[in-house]
Amino acid sequence: xxxxxxxxxxxxxxxxxxxxxxxxxxxxxxxxxxxxxxxxxxxxxxxxxxxxxxxxxxxxxxxxxxxxxxxxxxxxxxxxxxxxxxxxxxxxxxxxxxxxxxxxxxxxxxxxxxxxxxxxxxxxx
Length: 125
Description:
The chain is 81% helix and 0% strand. By secondary structure, the protein is an all-alpha fold. The chain has one domain (3-117).
């Protein structure tokens, strides 16, 4: 593996760690604070944008499999799915059940794309 490839992998792993920390805070705020669900939803979307980088608008428009393939890193796709779930939870808390269902379906489809594209990837290893 080249140094450039290692730098790219390190960058992606940093983005994933930052998104995981944002997700932890968002889930805590959604369940243990007076923060409005809409604020949590907005912050989860911002965390997803940071995770996805400049390609975020394009990735949101693509079908889940194509988006996962373009991202190219299973951990990044899984974290995106987690952030979508958080947005869905916030939408559900705000009684926006249509958005909650759509976000949950997108998250599920991204996870299925990871399983299909990277069948040997171990998310905990």
